[in-house]
């Protein structure tokens, strides 16, 4: 009898078939349609901005790479997601810097994958927002000029002021609502024919792509569900009080970065709670903060800061919502 | 209640039982040598009472129990004791074992013996007879059966649960036992009910074994209060606490035994063995075992003498295939990978799974991404994510306060973990570290 060379591993000797790289690359794949639609609306600049942000994330991950961590795909997700939160006309070097910052300060300093507290993509965006406030709020109108025309001086040299191009810019639906009290037709919001960041456009598509991930159990559906529920309930209540001043639920849900934030940013596995009750609370807190910032805050959009703020509370939420041990009814559970 | 007849969480691994589910049990020829470890049960190892050169018949006592939670070990074949020495044990260690050179031309007939008439024996005498026969739980944990059948006086047992779930993938040992020996299962159950004074019994069988359910139902004794229930196919349905929850909707309190809720659980193979003891008078010297997996040429259900070496067992099944890679004693969810082909099969070995290279798990791990899948799968509602992170930092005491003791190492968390973190291995490590800790004075 031929004796095989035996493998010795610990039980269980079967695996469910999902692996961390598989989850990460599936998320990347599910973002592809969103990038494609952004490119359809904003022309090649959209693709270039996403590519620049991704390049920044990947380059810095590679620079610190000692264990082949680039292959797990998490840096690519951060880059693509960051790219989707940027305006189409952002100079590429800024997008690149955002990617570098997001991965370096958002993830690597904490110890790499799985160790970070804040969503790296949003941290990158927060950095860009603070560093380049004007460039980050210049919104080219989709389909202004030909499809091939670039939406801004995206090839500006680092630290040079971008030239003001002859492009039409427009306020985002949230900005118009907040500062001009102008509503945007709901259909435009759902389909995405509005101005805004690359990923702030088609809410419907993001819902579909994120829904696919939820079906595969690659994101916890409780997080977007509770965000949507709380935003809808609070917005409906306020709208009933003063319809002229407060927008309705549908507007709140489909405008700005809420869809992308709820489906892709808040559900980041690493920076969301591990327990299901924790996820409900996490989502509800984000939803509440989004409405509060949008309506009473100084900014038109509050999704980014809402998620980052609640990220900080995740360890606490995990602690509060530990599962109840089997057979512990009537026993005092040590914490 | 919405969660009646169910337990929460758990996982659905592929069943993979089709390799052997329809193959009838057959007896294997005796090998040239059997090796019987002195520790084949939970508790203290048995004390040997034979020495090298002694001639033994099949069924003779080789080692006596050492203390109450201990069982004797019997010769599983007639022959000559060669040596008592350290030998590879299925748990991965080297442990004292009795080697017997088997008589090549022996008929392997046991010595003539009196078969006790169980209907005339009082419960304590029945329990003692079961103990002297060396019966242990055959589902894998090998807990001495007599201990379970003699509860403290103040504990009332109202229900005997017979566990026919066999929720481990691949294994069909209990399945074939129920299909081919349903009367033995019933007799064993009857004897256990008498030992415990229980009025009621329930037999739980996963719904993926309709032929076993049919066979058990067909032979159901009419004079006993027995219910046969088909159960959801979910791992670990056969874990005692999960089975009690599913069948009776009782939750065994943390740190307590099933006795605490008036239940004793026994595996169908154990029940059939008890019946055999009172049918033939022969102690536990052989067991039914599934040898399966894509790494073995002829997957089979076999009656094997305890102590038969892995090498001989594989030979009896046509040998390894070219791509055989890993040999697991027990099921693939909780079983132990074996390093030696000389390792003997012990009483608690419910299956031998030979995995082909393509069936083995990747060995690379990734950092925890806190996806929470382990929390969603843990049947006792632990937080394996937290426990795993603590284990990597060797913070054993903190693991203890987070209920490590309740972990039964079922492997659900490790099965679902996308980062392939060996969580059950870490928990076993932590449990061992805590056991080694010096007791405070």
Largest interface: A-B, 51 and 75 residues
The biggest sheet of chain B, with number of strands, parallel, antiparallel or mixed sense and barrel status, is: 6 strands, mixed
- Uncertain regions of chain B: pLDDT < 50 for 5+ in a row? none
Oligomer: heterodimer
Protein structure class of chain A: mainly alpha
Strand content of chain A: under 5%
Overall pLDDT metric of chain B: 93
Report helical residue fraction of chain A.
40-55%
> What is the radius of gyration of chain A?
21 Å
Structural class of chain B: alpha/beta
Shape of chain B: globular
Cα distance spanning the termini of chain B:
47 Å
Count of discrete alpha- or pi-helical segments spanning 4 or more residues of chain A: 15
Termini separation of chain A:
55 Å
SSE order of chain B: EEEEEEEEHHEHHEHEHEHEEHEEEHHHHH
According to DSSP, the number of beta strands of chain A is 0
Outline the low-pLDDT stretches of chain A: none
Question: What spatial form of chain A do the alpha-carbon principal axes imply?
Answer: globular
Report on this model:
The complex is a heterodimer of chains A (335) and B (441). With 335 residues, chain A is mainly alpha-helical. The mean pLDDT of chain A is 87. In chain B, 26% of the residues lie in helices and 20% in strands. Chain B has a 6-stranded mixed beta sheet with strand order 1-14-13-17-15-16, covered by helices on one side. A 4-stranded antiparallel beta sheet of chain B has the order 2-8-7-4, with no helix packed on it. Chain B is globular, with a radius of gyration of 21 Å. The N and C termini of chain B lie far apart (47 Å). The model of chain B has no long low-confidence stretch (mean pLDDT 93). The interface between A and B is large, with 51 and 75 residues.
């Amino acid at each position: 009898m031929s004796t095989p060379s035996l493998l010795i591993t610990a039980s269980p000797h079967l695996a469910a078939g999902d692996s961390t790289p598989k989850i990460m690359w599936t998320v990347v794949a599910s973002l592809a349609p969103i990038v494609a639609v952004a490119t359809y609306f904003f022309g090649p600049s959209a693709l270039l901005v996403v590519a620049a942000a991704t390049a920044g994330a990947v380059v810095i991950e590679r620079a610190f790479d000692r264990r082949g961590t680039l292959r797990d795909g998490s840096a690519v997700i951060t880059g693509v997601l960051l790219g989707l939160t940027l305006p189409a006309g952002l100079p590429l070097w800024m997008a690149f810097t955002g990617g570098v910052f997001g991965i370096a300060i958002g993830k690597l300093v904490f110890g790499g994958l799985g160790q970070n507290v804040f969503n790296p993509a949003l941290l990158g965006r927060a950095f860009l927002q603070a560093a380049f406030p004007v460039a980050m709020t210049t919104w080219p109108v989709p389909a202004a000029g030909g499809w091939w025309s670039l939406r801004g001086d995206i090839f500006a040299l680092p630290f040079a002021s971008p030239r003001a191009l002859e492009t039409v810019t427009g306020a985002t639906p949230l900005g118009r609502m907040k500062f001009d009290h102008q509503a945007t037709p709901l259909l435009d919001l759902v389909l995405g024919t509005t101005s805004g960041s690359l990923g702030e456009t088609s809410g419907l598509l993001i819902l579909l792509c994120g829904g696919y991930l939820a079906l595969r159990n690659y994101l916890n559906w409780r997080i977007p569900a509770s965000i949507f529920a709380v935003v809808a309930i609070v917005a409906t209540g306020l709208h009933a009080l003063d319809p002229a001043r407060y927008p309705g639920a549908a507007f709140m849900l489909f405008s700005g970065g809420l869809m992308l934030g709820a489906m892709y940013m808040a559900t980041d596995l690493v920076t969301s709670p591990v327990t299901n009750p924790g996820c409900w609370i996490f989502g509800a807190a984000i939803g509440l903060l989004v409405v509060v910032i949008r309506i009473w805050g100084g900014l038109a959009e509050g999704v980014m800061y809402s998620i980052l703020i609640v990220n900080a509370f995740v360890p606490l939420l995990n602690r509060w919502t530990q599962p109840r041990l089997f057979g512990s009814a009537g026993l005092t559970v040590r914490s | 209640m919405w969660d009646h007849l169910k337990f929460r969480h758990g996982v659905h691994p592929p069943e993979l039982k089709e390799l052997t589910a329809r193959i009838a049990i057959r007896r294997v020829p005796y090998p040239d040598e059997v090796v019987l470890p002195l520790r084949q049960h939970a508790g203290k190892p048995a004390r040997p009472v034979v020495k090298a050169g002694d001639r033994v018949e099949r069924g003779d006592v080789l080692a006596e129990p050492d203390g109450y939670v201990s069982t004797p070990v019997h010769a599983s074949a007639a022959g000559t004791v060669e040596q008592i020495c350290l030998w590879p044990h299925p748990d991965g260690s080297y442990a004292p074992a009795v080697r017997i050179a088997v008589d090549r031309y022996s008929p392997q007939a046991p010595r003539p013996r009196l078969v006790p008439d169980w209907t005339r024996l009082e419960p304590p005498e029945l329990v003692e007879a079961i103990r002297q026969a060396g019966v242990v739980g055959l589902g894998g944990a090998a807990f001495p059966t007599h201990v379970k059948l003699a509860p403290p006086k103040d504990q009332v047992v109202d229900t005997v649960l017979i566990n026919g779930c066999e929720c481990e993938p691949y294994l069909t040992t209990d399945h074939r036992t129920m299909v081919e020996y349903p009367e033995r299962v019933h007799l064993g159950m009857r004897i256990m009910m008498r030992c415990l004074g229980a009025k009621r019994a329930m037999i739980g069988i996963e719904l993926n074994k309709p032929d076993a359910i049919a066979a058990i139902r067909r032979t159901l004794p009419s004079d006993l209060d027995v219910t046969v229930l088909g159960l959801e196919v979910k791992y670990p349905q056969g874990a005692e606490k999960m089975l009690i929850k599913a069948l009776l909707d009782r939750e065994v309190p943390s740190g307590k035994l099933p006795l605490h809720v008036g239940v004793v659980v026994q595996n169908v193979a154990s029940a059939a063995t008890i019946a055999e003891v009172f049918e033939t008078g022969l102690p536990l010297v052989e067991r039914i075992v599934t040898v399966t997996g894509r790494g073995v040429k002829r997957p089979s259900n076999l009656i094997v003498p305890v102590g038969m070496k892995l090498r001989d067992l594989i030979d009896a099944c046509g040998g390894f295939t070219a791509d055989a890679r890993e040999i697991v004693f027990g099921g693939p969810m909780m079983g132990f990978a074996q390093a030696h082909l000389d390792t003997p099969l012990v009483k608690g070995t419910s299956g031998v799974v030979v995995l082909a290279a393509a069936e083995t798990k990747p060995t690379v791990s990734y950092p925890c991404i806190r996806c929470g899948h382990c929390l969603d799968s843990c049947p006792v509602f632990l937080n394996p994510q937290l426990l795993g992170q603590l284990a990597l930092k060797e913070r054993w005491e903190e693991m203890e306060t987070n209920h490590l003791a309740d972990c039964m190492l079922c492997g659900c968390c490790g099965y679902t973990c996308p980062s392939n973190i060996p969580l059950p291995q870490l928990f076993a490590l932590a449990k061992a570290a805590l056991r080694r800790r010096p007791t405070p004075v």
